[in-house]
Amino acid sequence: MASKRKAKPKKTAAKKKRGKRETNSRDRILNAAMQEFSAYGYSGARIDRITRNAEANPRMLYHFFESKRGLLDAVLSEIFKRRLTEMAETPHSIYSLLELYFDGFAADRHRVRLLEWEALEAKLRKDDSDLTNFDDRRDVVAKRVKIISDLQSEGKLPNGIDADLLYLIFVALTIYPMSYPQSVMITTGEDAFSERFRARYRAALLKLALLLDTATREEKRDNK
């Protein structure tokens, strides 16, 4: 007679509760670390301050992330993952592209600050390939450059500028107010993160997009 197969033991309520508690601890540490790295950079960030703000045991931080660098990598990975979700929709015009970039940067000041710190602390890296998620980020940028190249092929963007350079120009246009909010305040007297300023800047981007669109149409007509 065949022996009966033993049923796998079900997770106890205590184990489930512990797993949920660990997930909550990890999320709290990530959120606290995001704010800490955003405010102080990698060099200035302190583990004790992160765990205190996260109301977590330092041992749990090292359990989840192994090291301070591992924690930073996890924070940046989480931010890039969120941004990928936001960028899932493919822009079909110059304006929708600029709007998508601008709204993304304006909605996440921590991401902008972390990118700035990453540039300022470049000397701490062995080389550029030591950047967090380097290959994934390069692949994502390549796809965005391809979108711009496709818009050029469709006659929706001028062909006189290389697509990779246009990408950098568009990023510069849309990230500047959040990177230099003091310049926005000096120039306009407004908070770069306020709804009023964002509406004004978005409207200006629309006008710029219309000018580029007009120039592209004229270029296309002249080349016929």
Describe this structure in words.
With 224 residues, this protein is mainly α. It has two domains: 15-75, Orthogonal Bundle (Arc Repressor Mutant, subunit A), CATH 1.10.10; 87-224, Orthogonal Bundle (Tetracycline Repressor, domain 2), CATH 1.10.357. The chain contains ten helices and no strands. The protein has helices at residues 13-44, 47-54, 58-65, 68-86, 94-107, 109-120, 134-153, 163-179, 181-188, 195-222. The chain starts with 12 loop residues before the first helix and ends with a helix. InterPro entries: Homeodomain-like_sf, HTH-type_TetR-like_transc_reg, HTH_TetR, NicS_C, Tet_transcr_reg_TetR-rel_C_sf. Keywords: DNA-binding. Residues 46-65 bind DNA. This is HTH tetR-type domain-containing protein.
Looking at CATH, which topology of the largest domain would you report? Tetracycline Repressor, domain 2
The major β-sheet equals: none
Q: Please name the CATH architecture of the largest domain.
A: Orthogonal Bundle
Poorly predicted runs: none
Give the helix level as a range of percent. over 70%
Secondary-structure element order, N to C: HHHHHHHHHH
Q: What global shape is seen?
A: elongated
Give average pLDDT, whole number.
85
The count of strands amounts to 0
How many domains, in number, for the residues?
A: 2
Quickly name the level 1 CATH class of the largest domain: Mainly Alpha
Number of helices: 10
Structural class: mainly alpha
Strand content: under 5%
Radius of gyration: 23 Å
